[in-house]
Each structure stands twice: as structure tokens, then as C-alpha cells.
Design a protein that fits this description.
The structure is a homohexamer. By secondary structure, the first copy, chain A, is α/β, with parallel strands linked by helices. The first copy, chain A, has one domain: Alpha-Beta Barrel (TIM Barrel). Chain A is built from 13 helices and 8 strands. Chain A has helices at 4-9, 24-31, 49-66, 81-89, 103-113, 130-133, 137-143, 153-157, 159-163, 175-181, 193-210, 221-229, 240-258; strands at residues 14-19, 37-41, 71-75, 94-97, 145-150, 170-173, 213-218, 234-238. In chain A, strands 1-2-3-4-5-6-7-8 form an 8-stranded parallel beta barrel, surrounded by 8 helices. In chain A, helix 2 packs parallel to helix 3 and helix 4 (81-89) packs parallel to helix 5. Chain A is globular, with a radius of gyration of 18 Å. The structure holds magnesium ion (MG) (6 copies).
Amino acid sequence: PLSFAERLRARERMIGYWTQLPVPAVQERIARHGYDYVCFDAQHGFHDYHAVLNGMIGIEAGAALAGSACGGMVRVAENSIAVIGQALDAGARGVIVPLINTAEEAKAAVAACRYPSGGGMRSYGPMRAGLRSGPETAVMNVEVACIVMIETRQGLANVEEIVATPGIDGLYIGPMDLMLALGGSTINDPSKAEDFEGALARILAAAKNAGVAAGIHTMAGDIAAKRLNQGFTFASVSSDLNHLDKAAAEHLKTARLALVS
Amino acid sequence: PLSFAERLRARERMIGYWTQLPVPAVQERIARHGYDYVCFDAQHGFHDYHAVLNGMIGIEAGAALAGSACGGMVRVAENSIAVIGQALDAGARGVIVPLINTAEEAKAAVAACRYPSGGGMRSYGPMRAGLRSGPETAVMNVEVACIVMIETRQGLANVEEIVATPGIDGLYIGPMDLMLALGGSTINDPSKAEDFEGALARILAAAKNAGVAAGIHTMAGDIAAKRLNQGFTFASVSSDLNHLDKAAAEHLKTARLALVS
Amino acid sequence: PLSFAERLRARERMIGYWTQLPVPAVQERIARHGYDYVCFDAQHGFHDYHAVLNGMIGIEAGAALAGSACGGMVRVAENSIAVIGQALDAGARGVIVPLINTAEEAKAAVAACRYPSGGGMRSYGPMRAGLRSGPETAVMNVEVACIVMIETRQGLANVEEIVATPGIDGLYIGPMDLMLALGGSTINDPSKAEDFEGALARILAAAKNAGVAAGIHTMAGDIAAKRLNQGFTFASVSSDLNHLDKAAAEHLKTARLALVS
Amino acid sequence: PLSFAERLRARERMIGYWTQLPVPAVQERIARHGYDYVCFDAQHGFHDYHAVLNGMIGIEAGAALAGSACGGMVRVAENSIAVIGQALDAGARGVIVPLINTAEEAKAAVAACRYPSGGGMRSYGPMRAGLRSGPETAVMNVEVACIVMIETRQGLANVEEIVATPGIDGLYIGPMDLMLALGGSTINDPSKAEDFEGALARILAAAKNAGVAAGIHTMAGDIAAKRLNQGFTFASVSSDLNHLDKAAAEHLKTARLALVS
Amino acid sequence: PLSFAERLRARERMIGYWTQLPVPAVQERIARHGYDYVCFDAQHGFHDYHAVLNGMIGIEAGAALAGSACGGMVRVAENSIAVIGQALDAGARGVIVPLINTAEEAKAAVAACRYPSGGGMRSYGPMRAGLRSGPETAVMNVEVACIVMIETRQGLANVEEIVATPGIDGLYIGPMDLMLALGGSTINDPSKAEDFEGALARILAAAKNAGVAAGIHTMAGDIAAKRLNQGFTFASVSSDLNHLDKAAAEHLKTARLALVS
Amino acid sequence: PLSFAERLRARERMIGYWTQLPVPAVQERIARHGYDYVCFDAQHGFHDYHAVLNGMIGIEAGAALAGSACGGMVRVAENSIAVIGQALDAGARGVIVPLINTAEEAKAAVAACRYPSGGGMRSYGPMRAGLRSGPETAVMNVEVACIVMIETRQGLANVEEIVATPGIDGLYIGPMDLMLALGGSTINDPSKAEDFEGALARILAAAKNAGVAAGIHTMAGDIAAKRLNQGFTFASVSSDLNHLDKAAAEHLKTARLALVS
Ligand SMILES: [Mg+2]
Ligand SMILES: [Mg+2]
Ligand SMILES: [Mg+2]
Ligand SMILES: [Mg+2]
Ligand SMILES: [Mg+2]
Ligand SMILES: [Mg+2]
């Protein structure tokens, strides 16, 4: 079967889940549901390096339980060769690099993901990843997806150039940051709704023309489906922290409403 | 205003939440919703001592944010003077002690909760709790609730004796263990439903007659309300881990169903 | 295929590894080599509860990679219903309970491993284990092995009674403690060698007569094989900490010897 | 009441404490004494990301106990958009950015602290901070203080330019590094005392002229007061680690001296 | 030179420090000041097992720096063979066992500290301690001090019997618990001062008559000296947490008082 | 005696060990064997900041036990003033900076290692290191070794310029990355063996001519010796993780082969 990165490149439709809780047993649970990928939010979530390292093991265990493949990904905190290298050594099948503004920055992200055999600058030492990928750097270059986020005004302006960077495997939209970049005050700011959808369409088209994957962040399964139906090739549902918070609020509300005084 | 333990003893109706994730920022979030209490599951949840210690701080922070009081509790792993002492030193306003079978065991639980001034054997050193309770042991004796679980066949048989133990502030039903004790194969085993509700009624009556609180574990807010309406004085909704797991499963299902092929 | 506990009960020959390092990525590596079981040493190793919980996930991930089953076990720190319960909830397929002296103690160990449906006192809440075992307590009772250690003078004297305790799935010899119990000053004390082998023979015979598994701790693979050839049904090789320590010493020695001055 | 950042900008006099110990219960204790702010030293202290995240919760809990506001701050390890973003997402009311040499660097620090609505590049995801600030980025821009350290020769030379950077809320002096930059061999090098006080006067004047806060690091409360009396608007007392170390040394000395032989 | 346990048994006068912070670099700092021992408070402090294990390494490093011996001790959470065994395996040179009420309990504490060669039940596996003690159990039996706390009414009543238990190396007074046991409301309750000093004299005499060490907990160096001058052979100063808390409070007070308005 | 950095600069022959496991008790064990240095792999190993901080204490404790000096080093994740500063504050006697391509990058690495008194930009705050080095920055500048890695095509091309950078104390070869840079597919790619040895000779000569240390990474003690015999002045044996993994594999193989069916 195809690896996660190969499926992504083939623009297969994929649904993922976003995790912000530093608890490997949580990642194991999520992965066992059969998501195509689970992504650690190492930018805004509560993860440190050990949370990613151990949680990635949770994803493997959960995926094995489900009898499915599940690509562990990391939305890294920054576009840095060290940080991206650690995510990949920990076993990430892909990284989502935030705040990409230019083709130059995209090129740096790609270089961080590939060994010299693939034209990059990744340093060798896949202490966890190597268990599954084996030692061949050519194989590892192919099995790792490099995805860049379009979520700034500058990034949107340069999206066609960015996506043309050799080695980019996908674009990923951070709707909140993008909305803020467009001048919106909230994710659903009606005054910017049109601009926002226009920006999405432009990014979607750029990805399609370049033949790379197009992904987007969403807050719920139905929205993820809506975006996939609209042409996006992968969509994330977000997140364990948000969902438990919402559940805790709702159960209290339900209980209080149902109390007979 | 009354403290948590005083409200419990006054048989005020209270709704709580059960937490199994070792993430203080999760406990802070939950507490801010306004639950009357949040209880760490240190028996079956993923907590160790530091998770309880730091998460208890999260509860204080969340409660302050909500402008409400929220009683941090611990369902301890065992009926031990050391383990109960550590939960209380960490700031627990109450402990829920599992698997109580006899009045003797209940007596030991009470002794672990009170200093000699209250007839107990608690050792002095409230390194975190003392910040709020002050140094007077008589005050601390009063501010701490001792709740025992009725969830075994033997405990059920002895419930009237157990509840008569001086210093017991409440009974708490673990429905799953109780159902298993009654011979049920699952929590909803129809063949045991009548026995189960009978056992609940007996425990409820025992608590009421003794003038102590009667609590029960539930999986959702509407069930908690149902139990409170039925006469229970406190009910827990369970849990962050279960709720996020369910949410992750449902969002995937929703997304897949909504995909247009 | 048979589960780990079923294989153990069937007295299949099994080789395990002993782990003392609190690093889930280490357990993943070890499990992928294809050991029949990997056992956390929670008595003398460097593990705390999170090390066992997260490391157990490492074992699942490593076993999946190897395409083999690998039973995660825990040598618990003490014969306690709380401690054994936490190991099992974390996903242990078996526990090895140290320092068993009497049939009464063996009975308590068994009770800690089984739900009431199996005659025991285990409390329900398999927050991690349930992902694989499902919710049926009858199934979980069968899938969990209860192994007791014979390593004291009293335990040796009572071994036939101990092994006759219903629910005991295996005996396990701690050679060092046993040797000390016999008056030896080290594991290889020649003055006690005969007594030691005699004790082993007695324990081995007791297990065989009772139809339960007979296991032993060893320091190396060749000794494990020797013991299995001798009639033991499972043997552990010990341990990651010892092996890395030895390797570090040897590489330095080798390097110094090979230096040309 | 004014927020911490507003008080800082209003050049109110504030006294803070510096924390280097990764123990949330320590931060809770300190904050309850009523300090105007408590600052995590994430450059030279023993903190990692989880220490800051959980310790920030400790500050909220301690402040609530004191019935006071207490601004949690972070002296970040470097001037990086990712690192500053994580401190702010964790709930920091301000960051102190070390080793600022130029106005350009100051501008980058400001950009890291503000969302696009405030002209900056901060990425959205205030997973903890949002509980108190709400979702409006305009509000968050105002509630966060951006303070830069003047502690290098180059920074001193450029201090007037640096302080003129729009969005800078305060200057902060690191006396030790500044003294070393001036050629001193220790913090109290008498040969550089005059130069040092001259540098302080220059920085103080620059802050005053620009209408921003002027802060300084000190080792004790009386020195903090002296600096505030001299015109500084905020001063930190440093630190839990230093104070406990000193106390441990002094108690031993006292005890030995008082021993009657 | 004599080991820590040998010095203790020889009733040499020793001054120790009490540590409650789970930070190995703190223990290293404290030990380097030259204390005769540093004791982890695993009953009321913020330590878990890893804090003790890693902090014990800090003590060795600090002692080496000081060029002194410094005995790492653990005041364990309970009188349990498992818990005492883990403290000793982690390298403790002595344990202080709380809440000892009877000679029977004292006997159990001793058994937990000695291998069978010393008449005890300690299990072999000194994974850290063995680096320094070597493998001989007879040596380890001698190098480990077993100290029991007299701090309950019952313990005081039985102190002569308790101290007569073979293998007890010292008595240790917990003044707060003892004062509470005597009916005091605080450590300095004047109405119980005489009773308290009487109890101390009785315990001191019992230790002296039995030829074992007599220790006491104090809050400051001068009190420790006073107690040693009075005949106690060892005294602890308590603690890093208390001292930093006090320092933080005092520096704020000093600063505020010195502010010129 | 000479410090580690002085011995390195004097081109004394030294043998080190590479550690990738975040377990301080492992570093203590390794250091006690008498290695000249132990190096934390913070680029590809499983270390985070606390692992380095606490593990460095382990090295001190182990070295004291061995009665030897043992230089704790850190192969940092990136060439950053913040990251290098934290390693040195934690007590590193040297840093190995990866992926150095140019003299400019080497100059930045040196600046990160020295205080202004040594022409660098290190910020003052040696919270752990200062315990041993004392407060004099001139001393600390001398006691810290700055080693840069030559492991890229560009770094090799610039090696003579890099080594000429004032303040560089040594070159270190990462054979795997270097081999990949040369186009090799594995570390032993026969088609590149000649190129590889040629590159080594060039680097070795460059170091010798510059009078600085020349080091190399190896997988075993005999290879380390071979490289030292060849002229390298220091060589690392790698690593605890690899060695335990290999041992676990071999013991299983040995056991299976020795089984009599
Ligand atoms: Mg974003
Ligand atoms: Mg239960
Ligand atoms: Mg044993
Ligand atoms: Mg500074
Ligand atoms: Mg006490
Ligand atoms: Mg390399």
C-alpha cells in the first residue's frame, strides 16, 4: 500500500485529527479510530519534544490496533532545520510548517525535510523513525511529506511561487491566521467572508495547478467534509483539547437544565 | 460562603466532573465552567502524584476565573493513610475512597482524613493545602470531606454500618463495579437492571437516614441530572478522556458520511 | 492465535526481556526484536507509573512493527490491589508479583488480577487495556496472567501450597533473592550452588505438577536457553540497563587496549 | 482595574520576583505574597516549556488567593517569533527579551508580540491565554507587554533608537551582562562602578523620554526599592533559587557557630 | 572514614537539611554547602520517585564538589517494604520512617532495610545504590540507617520498646505531629510547652539508654544547634520550600517599606 | 590537573561516550567507567533540556565515583546562542556544534561560547555551571571547549577557513552525514570509501596544522582506537541506545539458537 506521503502526493482525500494534549495514551486512542493522519500541534498545543516523541509511538500503537495506516504529523513551531529534524527523527511522516511567506522560506522547509541525496540538508540520526523507514536516505526522502502553511497576507500573495518550490508536497490553510491577515476580527467575520473564500479558492487552485495536496484546518467533521467536497484533498478536525472543553461545558449545561428544583 | 465540604455535608445538590488526563491546563479549563467539584481519578485515570499536585493548582486557577468555588477532589487509588494524606496535602477538599467493604475500612478512611484533634491519624505537612486552609488542624478537619465508595457486594451488604461510621461525609456509587458485583456483564445488563436500581435505592436510603451526602458516577450530564432528581445529592460526569475519545470518533464518522464521492 | 496469557498457561516456551529504563522508545525497540514478552521492572528498575503506561504503548508499537505478539508484563513493586490494578489498566498482559511467601498472599495476588466475574476484586476502569481487550470482564480475566515469585525461604517452603492456589498461572524465580535466602553471598556462591539448583528443581517440579508455567530470571540469552532446556517454560533476559552498562565498560576497555602509544 | 501591561505602560511602580525553579507550587506560593509580577527566567533558569505553562497556572492560583493581580511574565531564551509566541499562548502578560542590540531586533520582538491587527506577526492559538483574554486579537495586543533588555555594549549604544521602536513597552536592564559588557569582572567591580551607573542613567533617561517603563534586575528587596526610588518604574528581586541557596548556607553556618562542643 | 550510617550509630553530632523541591539541581546546591545529610521529604514534600532518584544523584554531585560526605536520606511516605526498598535502591543512606506506633511497626521498618543476611526482607536490586556499596549484602546492611519517627501519642507511650527493637539506628522527632498528638493547637502552643519538652526528654533518654541516635526536626539553624546542645545527636533544618517562601515574602516587605513615595 | 577543555586544546588523546537516553542514572553509570568525556546528543538523541540538566549532574556524580574527571559535553541541536548558552549554563564543559558550513558560522559558535571578556556574546547566568567554575567569566571562557562539526560538502570545502576561526578548539567529524554529503548511500558505501578517507585526512590535517583537536564519531571502541592511532585526538563511541538495542537483539538470537527442541 502507499505510504502516507505517497497518498498525500497522489492527492487522495484524507481526514485527519489535530492533537494538543501531551498524553501518548490520548494519541493512541485517536489513531485507533481510523483517521488518515493525526497531527501534533507543536506550535500552539501543549506539546514539548517528549510529548511528540512518545505520542508518535501512541499513533503507531493505535494504528496497529485499527489495522489501518495513520500518518503521524507535526505542525512544527517554526521553520527551522533543527526543529523539523527532531520531528522527523521522532517518526513524523510529514511536517506542517507555519507562517510561510515566501518561496525562499518554502525552500528552506523542503531542505530541512530531505537528506543530501534528495537535495536537502537534513542531518542523519533517525533514532525512532529509522525503525520503520530503514537506513536508506532515498527512502526516507520519499516517505516524508513537506507541507507549508499559507496563512499570512504575504504568503497568500506569493502562493503560486511558494507552491512551485520543488519538494513541496502540499499547502495547508490556517483559517484563523488567514482571516486575521485579511483583516477579520474573528474566524467568522461576515465582513471578510467573501475575501476569505476568495483566498481559499486561490490557494486551492494554486495547489491543484501545481499538482500538490491542498489541506485546511477545520473545527468539526462536517466542515472537514464540506472542504473536501469543495476540492481540498485533506482536512484536519481540531482538536482533542477543544472537544473535551466543549463537552465539559455542555454536560454541565445539560445537567443544570434537567434538574428539577 | 460555605466550603465545599460544608456544602456536601449540608446535602446541597452538586454536579462534578471527572478528570483522567494528567494536564493541569485541562483541569483549569474544566473548573472554569463552574462545576461544583472536579475529581481526579487517581485509581483508573492517567494521573500520578505530580499530575494531581499540579492539576489541583489548575482547579484553583480555573475556579478563580469562573468566580466560583470548585472543590478539587481525588478518587484515591487505595485506602491508605499515606496516599490519602498526599492527596489532602496537595489541596484536595475531599477524597473518594474506593472499594470500601466494611465499617472498619470506613473508619480507617476517616482516620486518614483527620488530624488527632479530630480523632484521626493524619500527619501534619499541608505544603500546598495550608496556603488556603491556614495552619489550624481543627479547620482542616472540617474543610475536608471523606467519601467512601459502595461498589462491592460486601460493601452493599454493610452499607448501613459503613454509613454509620463517625466522620463519613458521603457515600459514592461506582456503578460499573457495583453492576459487576451484582453479576452484571455490562453497566446496562438488562437482566440485572432491577437488582442494580434496588441497590441504588438501598444506598440512597442509607445515606439519607444517616444524614450524609449520596453521590454517584455517571457518563453524561442528563444522567447526572436524572440521578440528582432521584434523590442523590451529588453526581459526577465522566470524563475528559471518554468525552474526547467519543468526540474524535464522531467527527470522523460525520466527516466520512458527509463526503461526496 | 493464542494470547500471551493463554500461551503461558499452555506452558509454551517463551523468551522475554527485562526493562528498567523509563524510555518508551526503548521498549518499542526491544519489542520489535520479537521477544515473546517484555517485562517492566517496577520493583527495582527506574520506572514510575507514567513510564509503565507510556512504555506499554511502546511495546504495542514495537510488536506491531515486528508483526509479532509481544506480551507486556509488569513486575510490580508489591502485592497490592491498587498497584496490580494500575499495571493491568495500563495494558499489562501479566503481572509478576514479588516476594510471595504463602498461599494466602498468592490468593491476594490472584484476586487483584480478576474481576468479580472471575472471583476476584479487581476494580473496573481499564482505560488503556480496554482498547484491546474490549469491555467484557470475563475476557479480561482470561487474558491476564498472574505470576508469583518464589524467592524467599518461606516461599520456597510453601511452594506446593502456593502453586495450588486457584488462578495462579505461573511461578517465577528471582535467583538473586533466592540465593540470598539460601544463605548465599552472591548469585554464584559455590557453597550454595547445590542448594540453589535443588531449590530450582523443587519449584520446577511444583509448577509442572500443578500444570502452570515455570519461569526464571537470567542475565543472558545463553543462560535463558539453558534454563528452558532444563524444563522452565519461560525465561527473562536482564536487562537494558545492565546491558548498556556492560557495553559502555567494554568499549572503553577495548579502545584503551587497542591504543598504540 | 488596569491590566498588568497597562500599569506597566502607565509607568506605575511595580515590584516583581524572578523564578528559576520548575515547580508550579513554588510559583503559586510566590504570587500569593502580592508581587506585582512574577517572571519566569526561561533563559538562565531551570524552566522548560511545561514548567512555564504549568507555573503560569500557579501564578493565577496564587494571585487569586492573594486577591491581587499578579502579572506572569517570561524572560524568554531568545528573540524568536516561535518562542515568544509560546510564552504568550501559555498566558504570559509580558515578555522580557534578552540581548537586544538594535532597533531592528526590537522591532522583531514587538512583531512577535502582536497579531496582524496590531501590526505584528503573532500566530493565533492562545490555548491557555485565551481563557482570560477572550478571542479578540485587539484586546490581546493591548494586554501583552513587550519589554526588551539593554545589556550589551551595542544595545547601550543604540538605546535611544531601540526605545523609539513603536510597540516597545519597557526597557529592562540586566546588570550582570551590562557590567560585563562595560568590561567589569563582577557585578560590583569598583573600577566600573561609575560607568555602570552612567549607563543606567542613560537607559533610564531614554525610557523616560520615550514614555515607556524602565526596569532593572536586582538581587534583593532593598536594592529593588533603591532603584525604584531612583526613577526606575519596575524592579525584579532575584531569585527563588538564589534565596534558597543562601538560606541553606546560612542556616548551616548559624548552626555550626551555635554548637557548644 | 566512617560512612553516614556508622557516624549516626556512633552518635556523632550531625546537621542536616530537609528538601521538598523536586529539582536535582537544588539538591546538588544544598549538598555542596557541607551538610552532614540531606533528607528528601517524600511524605509531605513535592517529591515523586523520579525526584528522589535524580535528586539523590544531585546529592552525590554536590558532596563531591564540597569534598565532603553527605548522606542522602529519605523520609518515606509510609512504612512499607516496597517504598523503603525503592528509596534504598535509589541510593538512600538512611530512611526516616514516619508515624511509628509500636515495636512491631519498628521491626517491620528494620526488616525492610536489611537483606536476609541481616535478618530482614529487603529484595535485591540496588540499581543505583550498588554503584557505591558494591554487591555484598552484608555491606549494604551496615551502610543503611534505619530511623523511626516518634510523633504520635502511641509511639511516645511505646518509645522504650520501640527503641529496643534490634536494628533501629535512631529515633527522630516530628515536633509538629508530636505537639498535635499532645493536644497542642500549634507547634508553639504555650499550654503544651511543658508536656512537649517532657516528651522530648523522654525520647532523648530512651535513645541514649539504647545507645542509638536521637534526632529532631527544626525550622532553623539556631534551633538545630540548641537541640544538639541539649543532647540530640542529629537535627534537620527545614526546608528549601519554607526558606524560599519566607525569603520571597521578606524581600517584598523590605522593598515596599523602603519605597519613597 | 588540566581541565577537560585544556586537555582537549593540548591535543591529548581522549575517548568519550555518546549518550542518547534521557536517564540521569544512565549518565552516572557511564561516567563512572572512566571515559574522558560523555556527550549528550541533543540533536538526534532523546534528550530535552531537563534531560541534559539532570544528566549533567549524573556525569559529575559518576566521575566523582570513578575518582576521575569526565567532561560532560553536549552536541547541541543547532548553532544558536540560546541553545548553546543553555547547555553551558547546565554545566557542559564543551559543545559540539553540528553542520558548520562556513567560517562565519564557526565564528557564531565561538561567540555563543564566550562572554564579552573573551570577545563573545554569551549571557551571564551559569546557574549550574557556576557551582564549579566560580563567577569569573575569564575562567569560564577558558574552561569551555567549542568544537564544530565538519559533516557537509560545504563544510569540508571550507574546513581550512573554519578551523582558522579564532576560538575554535576542535573539529569533529560526523561520519554518516559526511558520507551522505559525499554521495554515499550508507556509512560503509564501498564506492565512496576512498573519498571518505580522503576527506578525513584533509580534516585531520587541517586540525593539526591549526593546532586544534581533531575528533570523530565511531560506533565501537575498536574503531575509536583505530581513529586515535591514525592521528585523531579524540573519538566518541556511540551510543547507549545503539548498544542496548544490539544487546537485546543478540541475547534473543543466542537464546533461540541454543534452545533444544
Ligand atoms: Mg496559524
Ligand atoms: Mg470502581
Ligand atoms: Mg527479587
Ligand atoms: Mg542577561
Ligand atoms: Mg510528621
Ligand atoms: Mg550529523
